[in-house]
Structures are given as C-alpha cells and as structure tokens.
Amino acid sequence: MLATNPRGSDGPSRPDGPSPRAGQNHDNAGRRAGILFLVAAAVFSLRQLTSFDVFWYLRSGEEMLRRHALLFSDPFSYTSAQAWMNHEWLAEIFVALVARLGGIPGLVMFESAAVVCTLAILVHGRWPSPDWKQWPAWVGLACAAVALGLAAEPRAQLLSGILFAATLSLCQEDRGRPSRRLYLALPIGVLWANVHGGNPTGVALLAILFASAPSWRRALVAVGAGLATLASPYGLRVHEHFLGAHASLPEIREWHSLANALALGSLPQWAALFSALLAAALLVPRIHRREPVRFDVLALLVFAAVAFRYARFTWELSLLCASILLHLPGPAGPASEQHVPARRPFGIPVALALLGIASLAARQPIGLSFDSRRIPVAAVEYLKRAQPEGPMLNSYNFGGYLMWAYPREKVFIDSRAFTVYSETHFQDLLRLYAEPSFFRTLEMRWHFRLAVLQRAGRGARFLDWLRGQSDWRVLHEDDVATVLGKI
User: Fold this and answer.
1) Which of 154, 164, 175, 327 has its CA 20 to 30 A from that of 380?
2) Same domain, 357 and 381
3) pLDDT, tens digit, for every residue of 382-407?
4) Phi and psi (nearest 5°) for 474?
5) Which pTM value belongs to this model?
6) Closest by alpha carbon to 313, among 387, 226, 204?
7) CB-CB contact of 123 with 161 (8 Å)
8) In this structure, is residue 195 part of a structural domain?
9) Structural domain that includes position 462
C-alpha cells in the first residue's frame, strides 16, 4: 500500500533525507567555489621571475632545438670536465618553446597555469562544500596554493608537481576502489623520467600504496614505475643527482633543511608545515577509530621526514596534505553525502583570506617580467657594449643569466651544480668565498681576466677583497653586480 504525502495526493511520498535537487545545489556550490578558488590561485601565482635557473633552461633548450639533438657534454662553461647528466632535458625544451611563443610574460603565465593545473588534478572532482564543515580541505588547498605559487619557477620541478599530483590522485582513487586506472602511473613515470629524471617521489607514493594494502597489481605498478625511471637517455645514471652523496649539497639553498628554510622566513615552507600539522591533527582521531587511513599516515610520515631533511620537498608535502584533508570526512560525514546547500559559506572565504594574507607577506611582486633586483641586467648591457676579454669568473647565481644573455663568454660556474661540475670545483668556489686570497691559486689555474660578481650575498667579502687588489679595477658597478677587469 502506498503511503500518501502530507497534501493527500495519490503519489508516493518523498523519501526521507535531502532531495536530489539539494544534492545538485550542493555540488554546484562546491564547483562554483572551486572555480573561484582556482582563479584566485592563478592571480596569486603571477609572480615576477626570481629564479636564476630559468635562464640556463632557456639557453639549453634553445641549443637542443637548434642542434636537433640532446646535450651530453656542457658547451656553456670552460671549467666542466665531466659528462653532463642533463636529467631535465625535456623540461628545458618545453620552457624554451614557451618562451618562443610568449617571452618572459609567457613563462610567468605558464607558471600560473601549472599551479592551477596541479591543484585541479589534486581535487579530481572532489571540490569540498564552501561552508564551515569542510574548512580543513579549503585550508589545505590554500596552503598548497601558497607553497606552489610562491616557489613556482619555470623549470622541471613545476612540471614534476603536475605529475606528482596525478600520481597521488591515482593512489587515492585506487585505495578507495581498486581500479585498472592505477596503470596510468606507468606512462606518467616514463614522461617523468625525461621531464625530471631521477625524481623518486612518484615511485615512493606507489610503494606506500602497496605497503598500506598489498596486492599483486599494486606491486606490479610500483615495480614498473621504478623501472620507468630508467626510461631516459641516461639510464641508471639519472639517479646520481638525487641519490648521490654530495657533501656540498646542503650549501645549495633548495637543499637546505626545513629548519634552515623556516629560519630564513620562507613562506612556502611555513605554509607546508602548517598544512602538515593540520593533517596530522585530524588524522589522529581517525586512527583511534581504526578507520582505513594507513596510506595517509604512511605517506605523511615519509614525506614529512624527507621534507624535514631537504626543504625542496615541501612542494610534495603540501600537495599530499591537501589531498589528505580533501579526503577526510567533515563533521556531518563525507562531502559526497552532505547534500544540504551551503547557505553560510565559510571554507572558501577562509581560503581566499589566506591567499590574500600570503600575497601581502610575499617577497616576490606580482608581474609578468623577471625581478631586476636580482638579475645582472645592467652589467650584461655593459658587457655587450664594452666586450672585455675573458676568461670570466662569475658568481654562482649569475651563471645562468650570463650564459643566456651574454653567450660571447663561457661561464665559470652556474646553478646546474653537480650535474655539470665536479664537487671539487664547487668546493673551490666555497673556499674562495671564505678565503678570498685563494683567488690567486684559481687565477693561476684559469687565467681570469674578467669578473662579474654579486654585490650582496655570500660572495660580498670576496668582491671587497678583489676590489682592493692593485692588478684589478672596477669596470662597471650597479646595485646588483660589479664588473672587474684585470689590468
């Protein structure tokens, strides 16, 4: 017998619970809030280029496009005596093509688009409700946007972030309902091996997925992803960059410990740390309730430990924490079951407010150019006019820009670091900064006649010493760089 509805009609009564229209309204509200957030994240990420690496990317990518061949030895410096393990070759070509199409503004817009793409893949159709119930998810997304948007550079790590988010989404999907879609991690791994070869983070995710719930299929994908890291022109050697023991590695800023990065006031690292603490705090009660969170817990422990040792991995940590917070149920159950329309938005305003505060606190200004306060633009203009004779000694950070903007002279060193230069060469530079008189030993070896040096930073003491030497004189000086020539 059919029950009658309150109005007494002959039709069946409404089932208990929210109507399909209420659920649709909820989904639409989350989608609209998500689009608004992505637009805000895109604007937030339009930062002036501050990376010194982008310029050697441009030079290397253009050279490979010109030659129609990969570079296995270094044609840009006169001090490299080893083969170039160019593990980012595909990213370099891609960056060069973007610059051909859009110049420096195009590279900035590429940064922004990559950040948005990474966040969109991470969410993967799970936009949380914009109300208060899902505020942790919005905070996690905001922290990820801050970590990515302020640290984004047009280089391999930016593309690697997209591939990491894709692999992470596949893992989260598979742990909920095992699917053959996990096999997509294998072609992603092959692409990753050539974009940012040797990066073990995708394999680590798949290994953690297997460890959290072992199966033959997950084991096969994890092993296959490990083998896919060898699918580059450098084979097993590609892992030397990430896994090789370099005593001087901590001297490079991106390889600082998390504690050092936080002490320097690095906002992306602070954002990642906050999201990690939030994710850990919200996982604890779920562990006590014996909920299936082994993958989340293991992944958080592994990536937090790696990020604590090397701050550059806070990118991956922030994405992982955002994913964990997205998959946590709110106070009223999972987001998919909360079909009550969000009448009082709270989560999305919090996320937008965090982006606004981070934008005000950021050191990088918004713009479609590069930050001329860091780049030796005026010094290179002088070099182009005067064309003083080399060989040239240059500061570590200036090498990439000199390589790209002043190809007439080969560089002494640049930020390609151990993929091009021996550790002995890198140690010579560190000793020069600490012991300026060591310059005479290097001068006898390399016969310098030109020096382009940073005025601020670690090498300032050496610059002051060289300026005082009777056989060297200042040829040009501006707020960023000093050019000296041998008399």
Assistant:
1) 154
2) no
3) 999 999 998 999 999 999 999 999 99
4) -75, 125
5) 0.87
6) 204
7) no
8) yes
9) 377-486
